Amino acid sequence: MHTKRIIPCLDVKDGQVVKGVNFVGLKEIGDPIALAKQYYEQGADELVFLDITATHEVRNTMVDIVEAVAKEIHIPFTVGGGIKNVDDMKTMLRCGADKVSLNSAAVKDPSLIQKGAEMFGSQCIVIAIDAKQRETKDGWNVVIHGGRIDTGIDVLDWVKQVTKLGAGEILLTSMDADGTKQGFDIALCKAVNDLIEVPLIASGGCGALSHFYDVFSQDAADAALAASLFHYNDLSIHEVKQYLSYRGIAIRNHVPSIEEWISRLDFDKQGGLIPVIVQDEQSDEVLMLAYMSKKSLQITMEKGLACYFSRSRNCLWLKGETSNHFQHVKQLCMDCDHDTLLMRVEQDGAACHTQAHSCFYTTYDFREENTNEK
Q: Is residue 328 packed enough to be buried (19+ CB in 10 Å), middle (13-18) or exposed (0-12)?
């Protein structure tokens, strides 16, 4: 089974990453080089760089920025925008791109697809298709020049043509969904994916973890591209991958650094502390509830032994330091709101200071009450 790919996208204008809604209302996000490095370190499978105004402004892609980005990452790197001929493709590949993305230029001269595939191989040729639903709701048209010109070309007809000419991958963006965070256009993606044998990248509209799952579970795409979610730090790429893996989607795993993992937690909600539910790894019994600060969590992750923050003594304490009842940490799980931890441990001796194995030994059993009433 092929693993699904998570691809962040850098839409670049005037040397800065930007993002809008439905291709308009662009807002500056930040430096493309710094963001590229960040996404690479988070475990991105690939990176797409689109110089979104190069074609409209009739100029070449920003070579210096492409070169700088390529030096920071070691994953497949696709570059598009302003690529008009084979020489432009060659320039981008020499600058460090692994693939080139053609959009407007391919529509104007479809033979460019075949020329590129013959010279560099189909695997290097990505055809970016910006699709807009027709007012009649009976299909989608290809739009070019950053969404400014409706060509009147039917998307499905265009997909058949470009793959026949040698396109090795399709990057499909829904103009209607772009930037809305309402989810990928599944109908559009499935209509295209059912026609082709080359990989399809779904783009436009992703706004939640479930949207990644939807597009993959419905077999509507091979990869999912997102921008706003990652740019505004709503989600990390590692978080997306762990969610998808948990829900049964085959994904390429990424092991984050301790610093990266801790940075996702919200310590501000409870005065710098995170509640930790401690669970016995073998029995699944809940042993105790404790609190961690950033420092105690860092010590826990580095030593593999539970270290907490004592609110009564206002200091760090290593569980078992005086009793020898250490907790050997086997797994840490962050909740969906990033403000609570579940920690599975191998417990030496008792977890509770009363010498009980669990602190939760005082019970009120509703099942027993219901039995008595009968």
A: middle
The count of other CB atoms within 10 Å of the CB of residue 159 is: 24
338 DSSP assignment: S
The answer to whether the beta carbons of residues 221 and 195 sit under 8 Å apart is: no
Region of residue 116 (phi > 0: left; psi between -120 and 50: alpha; otherwise: beta): alpha
pTM as predicted: 0.82
What ranges in 271-334 are assigned the alpha helix state H?
Answer: 294-303
Which residue has tokens 């008595």? Answer: 372
Question: pLDDT per residue over 228-241, tens digit each?
Answer: 899 888 899 999 99
**Long-range residue pairs from 229-237, CB within 8 A, at least 24 positions apart, any chain:** 229/181, 230/8, 230/39, 231/17, 231/19, 231/29, 231/30, 231/35, 232/29, 235/209, 236/42, 236/260, 236/264, 237/6, 237/8, 237/39, 237/42, 237/43, 237/44
Q: Which residues are catalytic?
A: 11, 130
Residue 279 has pLDDT above 80, yes or no: yes
What pLDDT, in 10s, does the model give residues 112-145?
Answer: 999 999 999 999 999 999 999 999 999 999 999 8
What are the structural domains of the chain? 5-256 (3.20.20.70), 263-347 (3.10.20.810)
